[in-house]
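Course assignment 3, question 2. Fill in each field.
Student: A.L.
Task: Predict the tertiary structure for the chain below.
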Amino acid sequence: MQGDGASDVVVRVLGELEIRHGGAGVPVGHTRQRAVLAVLAMEAGQVVPIDLLLDRVWGERAPARQRSVLRTYLSRLRPLLAPTGITITRQGLGYLLAAEPGIVDAHRFQRLLDSARRQPDPRAALELAEEALALWRGEPLAELDTPWALEVRERLRLERAAAVADRIDWALECGRHRELLAELATSAAAQPLDERTAAQLMLALYRAGRQADALRHYQRTRDRLIDELGTEPGPALRELHQRVLTADPALAVPPSTRARLPAVPRQLPAPPRTFYGRDTELAQLEKILTDGGERDTMVVSAVCGAGGVGKTWLILHWAHRAIDRFPDGQLYVDLRGFDPVAEPVPVAAALRHLLDGLGVSPGEIPGETAARTALYRSLLAGRRMLVVLDNARDAAQVVPLLPGSPACTVLVTSRDRLPALTTRHGARSLVLTTLPDTDSHGLLASRLGSERVATEPGAVSALVRHCAGLPLALSIVAARADAHPGFPLASLVDELDEAPSSLDVLDTGELTAGLRAVFAASSQALPPEAAAVFTLLGLMPAPEPGLDALAALTSLPASRVRVLLQTLETASLVQQHRPRRYRMHDLIRLHTTELAHRELSEKDRETALRRLIDFYLHTSHTADRLLYAHDDPIDIGQPCAGARPLSPRNEAEALTWFDTEHDCLMALQRMAVAQGRHATVWRLAWVLDTFHRRQGNLDDQLALWRAGASAAAETGDQAARCLALWRLGAARSLTGRDHEGVDLLGRALTLAEQTGDRGRQANIHQNLATAWELRGDDRRALHHAREALAILEPAGRPIRLAHALNQVGWYATRTGRHDEARTRCEAALDLFRRHENPDGEARTLDSLGYLEHRSGRHTTAVEHYRRAVTLFRELGCNYDEADTLERLGDTCLALGDRDQAEHCWHRTLELYHAQNRPREEEALRARIGAARGQG
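Answer field:
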């Protein structure tokens, strides 16, 4: 990123100090010397008096002869900075760093924000705010701990928090409420008394059709304010509450921003903090990506090489340097093709991640992989975007993720050469090998300081030999040495000489003999408690676990785990890539897996995994009950000691939990399958079932229940086997396999009858009714609906009874039994309204609308349908909204209102297409054509 002018020099203080010139890092010495430069950079273009400079760098810990030390540091900095054009000169009683303030990221951050706040167009303001926030890479002025630095750091944190809040306001104005929901729910949970955050979450919920959730959040906030501060909410929040309560039309997305461009994603991870060398490879990559000028085909580059050789570092370094070429955004997905303990990311899951980044709401993501690819390519058409597909297993994992637009650029990394991508899709390949010794020396010098490296040339050569040109190994060794600046480098060489010689588990020939030595020396040098946590990480089945899950795995408080993970991050063994979420390079994960199985007893491994499983299972069970509390719960027992499951408080938090932890839960089930933990397998399928149905994620739902049914059969537990067959049959039916669904549901019903489980029999009859309807047999469907009703009428469970009454009413209408239908549906509607269940009320109004339409009372039918559509939209039930809208269009046509009918049908077609319902979409298009022909 450049400064305000045409300079290619960047000074970064929003994180560890870094100077970049022409995209390359400039070494500026050890920590205290860097601190001097950081203070001058914060006052770029201004004279800093000597006494003030000394105070800001050292505070009360100034060394003897501090002025002499300062002069030494400045004399070393001047030649280092000379190639950049930055100068440091003595001016009277102080020093001046001569540079444009715009090249310093802290100053650029403030200028971008000031510009954003002057913008009348929220879209322009949002782009500037996102550019400003992207400048942050960590703690500002990370080299300094003086009182001045602490004060500046706190001021910058407050400014960043204000910028984040402003960005959310502008994003809400631009209609991006759905993509903000998870972020706002997390922020509101962390800051329950912040009224601005509460208002933003209420507005996002309301615009997403969740009026009831918005009102509930207001009440929770009000209760907290009264309990903890003894005060009512402020006038702004009270006014918003009234407007949400009355459904004020002015709360809708402003028309001027409604027809906005799709979301501009900024998904690139931060660039590597230390990047050295690779000039030849960067030039080759640049040539590949810029050859041809105006091009009519998409540019795809595949960077291939062994694990740890720096493929991801290279492409992220290049991508951040070239970020201005991609004004429409950057997408990134780690495909985990060579993860040692987890499966590669399925194509459908990768597409879901990419569509999330493009602002597609979960309810509008198609279920089928091919439909997701089509939607993804449609959204990228004509947009200048960078797509980074990191760590691909093979070409088959990559091809469905390629955009169709020639304006896009794709970077792929893989250990495989990906010949199919080269021959069939014109990808240009760049093979990355190890660093030459000169660059390895340079990388260590940039991290440790040239003076320290020059002092022990023999030891440095030995370190380079051990690392064998692998940037990952060099980074870890540098972190080890940097942690003990007073230790001779020769002592680290001795540790490496004594460590084991190779990662024997890898027989691919990719790794050199010294890699395990590097990992082993680094992990053995950790403090005991941090080393214990590092070893336990080898048991984690998920590639990017959260802090709370790691607390359960280790049986430590989350606050303590966070501190220990910071120690591991300092040693370059883990990375906190998002707040409270951590990941490791896959070779380090392999090392931790070896450690866990070598150092931990079988009992200790089992105890830790039991805590982890119980954390995920019990938290998910609580979240699932918030999403749907009317089904019979499953018995999962009590969590074991140390598991510390979370307790989501409402539906919004439950949805956020599942959305955030979805990949981890899927990985946990795969681990449970591999280890023969049969009860865990089917229970995980159960707790995720409602979430998958709500999100329309039918592929994952079906996959979980395939595994769940097999596992339940192994347990010998007939009740579990019945439950799993029931849910697998329902999933088969929903994915178009209704013949298989009927068979599975029939087997489940037999088991439920054998065990005498009347509640489960009712469930299965209701799903059989739906399955037979899908097969076109409404009489059999009515039979099963009546069977369910007969079971539930004496059970005393009003919501389940109401659903059964409505289902009988629906099939009674379809088979011409209108009197029975009216009696059943009106009874259901009364129950739903008395128990304040808007979902059931909407479904029953839809049934009554259908009954009135079939009875010829079209005006009444329209009233019922419109009320049902409104409720479905408020609840975010897009699937049901589509069905009701189609029937509303039929009724409008019967009333002679052809324009209104076509309006309803076209909206229905949009929803069918987004939901990947080609059968319904094709049938409706045919009916629209027939209606026009009759007109």
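Instructor remarks: Confidence is low (pLDDT under 50) at residues 1-7, 256-261, 501-514. The first strand starts at residue 9 and ends at 12.
Grade: pending
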